């Protein structure tokens, strides 16, 4: 196996792994030798993903996790340590969107939900992942932000608010823990054909959304996960504090 994509023996924890990026990343890491602890608020879904991965012979544990609860995030890391002895990779992927609406119609309940899951959920994950990585003397964390985290997002202001906060957490963590050999980066996808998009946008809406990209289409999950693998690669040892846009050219405009 190419050393760039060899994760043999690495222990990864991934939130939001019942579908979308989390599910596909878990499958790809397992193919490359990683041991996994995967979680989702959808326990039935994440157990099914784990069963499929385990059938390939990979080591995987699935558990329910509400990332808005600190104790759930702590338990996930503790499970990895108890079963595999360490945490090499933390992927804070779980997140939620909200219905498209203008900023002046966003109420407090929407902002509270966005902050609880998309911001606190990332910080809780980082908190416990970093504590273990400090003991190990190394580790890599990847947070899932969005193009809405590095630009404006018309009719998605609360989501943009939260995803901008993920960028702040990522850059600050990279500065604080770089000397400890802990790399912390974020990925910022444009609209991608995961359930988060397809559940909110019908075919006509997706066509309109795709016109915002010079490549004139939405992203495919496998395209985003390919970059996630590169960012997490054990050979990628000098990259930290970066927020990488995978956007079909949107940010070049």
From TrEMBL:
Pfam families according to UniProt: adh_short_C2
Keyword annotations of the record: Oxidoreductase
Superkingdom of source: Bacteria
Protein name according to UniProt: NAD(P)-dependent oxidoreductase
Organism: Cognaticolwellia beringensis
GO MF annotation terms: oxidoreductase activity
InterPro entries referenced in this protein's UniProt entry, alphabetically: NAD(P)-bd_dom_sf (IPR036291), Sc_DH/Rdtase_CS (IPR020904), SDR_fam (IPR002347)
Family: Belongs to the short-chain dehydrogenases/reductases (SDR) family.
Matching PANTHER family: DEHYDROGENASES, SHORT CHAIN, ESTRADIOL 17-BETA-DEHYDROGENASE 8-RELATED
Keyword Ion transport tagged: no
Record has Heme as a keyword: no
PROSITE patterns recorded: ADH_SHORT (PS00061)
């Amino acid at each position: 196996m190419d050393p760039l994509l060899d994760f043999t023996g690495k222990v990864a924890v991934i939130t939001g792994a019942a579908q979308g990026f989390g599910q596909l990343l878990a499958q790809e890491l397992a193919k490359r030798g990683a041991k996994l602890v995967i979680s989702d608020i959808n326990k039935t879904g994440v157990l099914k993903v784990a069963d499929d991965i385990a059938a390939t012979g990979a080591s995987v544990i699935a558990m329910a996790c509400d990332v808005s609860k600190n104790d759930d995030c702590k338990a996930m890391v503790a499970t990895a340590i108890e079963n595999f002895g360490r945490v090499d990779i933390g992927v804070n992927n779980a997140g939620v969107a909200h219905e498209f609406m203008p900023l002046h119609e966003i109420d407090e309940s929407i902002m509270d939900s966005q902050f609880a899951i998309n911001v606190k959920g990332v910080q809780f994950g980082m908190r416990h992942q970093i504590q273990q990585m400090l003991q190990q003397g190394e580790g890599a964390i990847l947070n899932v932000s969005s193009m809405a985290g590095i630009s404006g997002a018309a009719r998605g202001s609360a989501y943009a608010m939260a995803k901008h906060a993920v960028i702040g957490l990522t850059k600050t963590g990279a500065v604080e823990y770089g000397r400890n050999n802990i790399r912390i980066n974020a990925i910022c996808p444009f609209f991608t054909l995961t359930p988060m998009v397809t559940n909110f946008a019908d075919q006509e809406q997706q066509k309109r959304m795709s016109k915002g990209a010079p490549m004139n289409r939405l992203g495919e999950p496998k395209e985003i996960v390919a970059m996630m693998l590169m960012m997490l690669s054990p050979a990628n040892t000098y990259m930290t504090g970066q927020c990488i846009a995978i956007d079909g050219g949107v940010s070049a405009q």
